[in-house]
Known about the structure:
There is one protein chain. This protein is mainly alpha-helical. Helix content is 78%, strand content 3%. The chain contains 9 helices and 3 strands, in the order E-E-H-H-H-H-E-H-H-H-H-H. Strands 1-2-3 form a 3-stranded antiparallel β-sheet, with helices on one face. Helix 1 (26-52) packs parallel to helix 5 (168-205). The chain is elongated, with a radius of gyration of 29 Å. It starts with a strand and ends with a helix.
Amino acid sequence: MKQIIACMAISMLLINAQAQSQFGSANDYLTFISKNIEKVDADMWDYNSAIAHGKRARKIENRRKDLIKSIEEAQGNICETKAFKGGKSFKDSVCVFLSTNLNMLNKDYAKIVDMEEISENSYTDMEAYMSALEEADEKLTDVGKSYERAYKQFADEHNIKLIESSSKLSEKAKKANVIFKRNHKLYLIFFHAFKEEALMLEGINKTNLKLTKMHRDTLIEVAKDGIARLQKLKPVNGETDVKTALKDLLMFYQTEAGAQSETAIDYVKKSKTLKKLKKDLDEGDKEQTKAYNEAVVDYNNELKKFNAWSEKNNQLRKQKQDKWDAELKDFLDTNVPK
C-alpha cells in the first residue's frame, strides 16, 4: 500500500511501496532524512539572510556556531545510523552534503569573516570578499543539487512517486540567491566610486595636488563605467528604484569630480603656495613679505570658494547617499524576507 508524507528540502509528497529495514519502509527513511535536514536548512537561511541584510559576519558569529551545531547533530543522526536497505549511496550523498556544508562553515566562511574585516580598505579587498561569498554559495549550490538528485534517485529505486511542490523556504532561497548576486554587483559599482571619491577628498585635505588630480580623474572614469554597467544589467524584480538611486549617486560623483573640482584644485594650489612662502619667508625681506601677504589674500579668497563648494557637495552627497542606502535596504527587505 502506498502512503503520502511531506518532504522538507526539496519539498515533495512521497508515496511508498513496501516496508524494509529498521525504518519499516523507504518512506520512513526519507522522513528520517528530511527531519534531520530541516533544522539545517532553517538555520542556513537565517544565517545567509542576516548577512544579506547587512549584518556583519563577526557580529552574527553565534548564528554560524548554531548552524555548525545543527549540521553536526544531523551528521551524527544520519551518518552513524545504518542506511535503509539499498540506500547506502543515498546516505553517502547526504553525508557528503552535510560534510561539505560543515567544511565550508569551518574553513571558507571563517576566512570570509576575516576578509570582511578588511573589505572596506579598498575596492580590490571588497571585490575579493564578494567573490569569496559567491564562490562559497556556488559550492553549496552544487552539493545541494547533488543531494537532490540522490534523493530523487532513491525514490525511483524504491517505487516512490514524487509530486513536486516547492516549499516556502525553498522558494525563498531560490529567489534570495538571485537577489544576493544582484546586490553584490550593485554594491561593487557603488563601492568603487565611493572609495575613489574618498581618496580624492583625502588628497584635497592633505593639499596633495598629484593625489587629488589622480583620483579625480579615476573617479570620473569609474562613475562613467558604473553607469554603463548599470544599463547593461538585465532587470531583476523590484530593482528599478535602487538602480535609479545608484545612478543618481554616480552622476553626482561625475559632477563633483568634473568641472566643479577646479574649485578644489585651485584651493590646493593656493594652499601649497602659501605654505611654501611661509616656510621660506624672511620677514626682513620686503619683497618676500609682500608676496606672502598677497598669497594670504589669495588663499582666503579660495578658501571661501572651497568651503562653499564643500558645503554644497556635502549636502548633495548626503541626499543621494541616503536615497541609495534606503532603496538598497528596501530592495533587500522586499526580496529577502528576514
